[in-house]
């Protein structure tokens, strides 16, 4: 990750928010692109522990969360709080675009 420049990120954000009015609709547009393009499941690291990201969700507080599991334990973690693997999963550039948008 980190391979896209500012103009590329802003073009992705524009593509996903072109018909959006306000911050909530923009976030929904970015969430929709993550749903469409992020290759699930993938492994990530949370607090030094490897977890499986098996889905994403738009939380009531407006944040986009990764639905993570390890064994029988499941937890929702802010997608921007994940330490992504290298190489990152297909579609991870949309996480980068969301990070850029969230500023």
Automatic annotation (TrEMBL):
Domain of life: Bacteria
InterPro entries assigned: Uncharacterised_Ca-bd_CcbP
Protein name, entry field: Calcium-binding protein
